[in-house]
Amino acid sequence: MSKQLDQLISALPVITDGAWGTQLQALGLAAGECPDEWNLTHPDRVRSVAAQYVDAGSQVILTNTFGGNRISLGGHGLAGKIEAINRAGVVISREAAGTSALVFASIGPTGKMLMSGDVSETELAEAYGEQARVLAAAGADALVIETMSDLEEASIAVRAAAATGLPVVASMVFDSGKDRDRTMMGSTPEQVAAALSEAGADVIGANCGLGMEGYIPIGKRLRAATKKPVWIKPNAGLPELSNGVITYKTTPEEFARHAVALRDAGVAFIGGCCGTSPLFIAALSAALKH
Amino acid sequence: MEEIKKLYDAVLNGNFKIAKELTQQALDAGIDPQVLVQEQMIPAMDEVGRRYEANEYFVPELLISARAMKASLELIRPLLAAQGAEPAGRVAIGTVKGDLHDIGKNLVAAMLEGAGFEVIDLGVDVSPDKFIAAVNEKRAGVVAMSALLTTTMNSMKTTVEAIKAAGVRGKVKIMIGGAPVTQKYADEIGADGYSSNANSAVALARKLVAA
């Protein structure tokens, strides 16, 4: 891992950021619109999300490049803008981060399934490799493979990201099985930790999912399964719809209270996913810093 | 007849090569294709669905069983068509306008096919007009809509309204599903049903075509 990262995790935990998608929607991102394209069309609004997280105490912020691979962008007719969108994503977060935070560039899933033959391993490796190289060249401090449901796809993405030489965080969603401790494809935290380490990840994690409480045992199991630092970014509970408006029921204070258990379990990086906001990060900073 | 029971196991275990072989052998031996489908293959897929719902099976098991089912059905379908046999129902399925996510939709489509439905897959980002055309031109009796995003699920409401405006609401049952979707939302927009996973979607489709 890089010296910078070693230094960062010498004082645990590291506060990461919260959701981007739900924040951009609040700023006017329309239904079905490609969030990543906003790096080119609405850079000021994207920067304002990043800056709010830095102000709230994020020591690591991500980038608005979650869907910036060729396969996902291609669905929006934006395959020709891969380089511009990903480069702008890093630049925007870097401007907001200044010297207060590191920039970890986000790489999300392609939304295509290997097993059903919708996409091949080679296509995935090429798509992730292409995105990772642009993000690295734009100056990201690390790459974050996140919100993965399929361990095979995640492993391909990790290998492609690790080839850039940057530190790689690999984070999966655990929301399936009787105890909600499996990925969609049935992998356990232990299997995930082993396979992603093998693929070359430097940090292993869990994000999105069903909320903070369920991710405390997941964080503990990942902690026990690997010597590498652990990364946890849960949703603010499950979305609920009332009168056409989406709300997340977990409050920033509840979220932060549960996060203390993650810190005590030795989780290195703590932040939030869908439904969390700068208020959640501010509450985390207040609750977790000694 | 002992041999055809192995077809049940082949589908349940997702062994598509064996499923195909056994199907061909059974057909060569003159066994009624309807018997194969109704007594072995569909019950096997029902068991797959039950195990999935009980968290004993995960998506990979579901997919490989659906693949075995599909391999066998490819041999059987022409014979069923020649007999004039009707499918369990015709479902036009798609991810709604503005939404490009198709994993959930594909799983439901595979399970519906496995249950003997004819599935008309309209793909992703499907406009209300395309759903209406499938009802009018392809005689779909069920429209199944999927959405992953809270921001795109309102396209379900728009589509239900368009189906009403087109005057075909009486000809079709509407079912919906996807991560942010709930029974409450289905009631709110006037859909006929909601299901939370690919297995309960099959049960729902059966209920809707029987109603």
Q: How are the SSEs ordered, and which strands pair?
A:
The complex is a heterodimer of chains A (290) and B (211).
Chain A: H1 3-8, E1 14-15, H2 21-26, H3 38-41, H4 43-56, E2 60-61, H5 70-75, H6 82-97, E3 102-107, H7 121-137, E4 142-148, H8 151-162, E5 168-172, H9 189-199, E6 203-208, H10 212-225, E7 230-234, E8 239-242, E9 245-248, H11 252-264, E10 269-270, H12 278-288
Parallel strand pairs in A: 1-10, 2-3, 3-4, 4-5, 5-6, 6-7, 7-10
Antiparallel strand pairs in A: 8-9
Helix pairs in contact in A: 4-6, 4-12, 6-7, 7-8, 8-9, 9-10, 10-11, 11-12
Chain B: H1 2-12, H2 16-28, H3 33-53, H4 59-83, E1 90-95, H5 103-114, E2 118-121, H6 128-137, E3 142-146, H7 154-165, E4 173-177, H8 183-189, E5 193-194, H9 198-210
Parallel strand pairs in B: 1-2, 1-3, 3-4, 4-5
What would a concise description of this structure say?
The complex is a heterodimer of chains A (290) and B (211). Chain A is of the alpha/beta class and 290 residues long.
Description:
The complex is a heterodimer of chains A (290) and B (211). Chain A has helices at 3-8, 21-26, 38-41, 43-56, 70-75, 82-97, 121-137, 151-162, 189-199, 212-225, 252-264, 278-288; strands spanning 14-15, 60-61, 102-107, 142-148, 168-172, 203-208, 230-234, 239-242, 245-248, 269-270. Chain A is an alpha/beta fold. In chain A, the strands form two sheets. An eight-stranded parallel sheet of chain A has the order 1-10-7-6-5-4-3-2. A two-stranded antiparallel ribbon of chain A has the order 8-9. In chain A, strand 3 (102-107), helix 7 (121-137) and strand 4 form a beta-alpha-beta unit. Chain A starts with a helix and ends with a helix. The mean pLDDT of chain A is 94. Chain B is an alpha/beta fold. Helices cover 59% and strands 10% of the residues of chain B. In chain B, strands 2-1-3-4-5 form a five-stranded parallel sheet, sandwiched between helices. The model of chain B has no long low-confidence stretch (mean pLDDT 94). At the A-B interface, strand 8 of A face helix 4 and helix 5 of B.
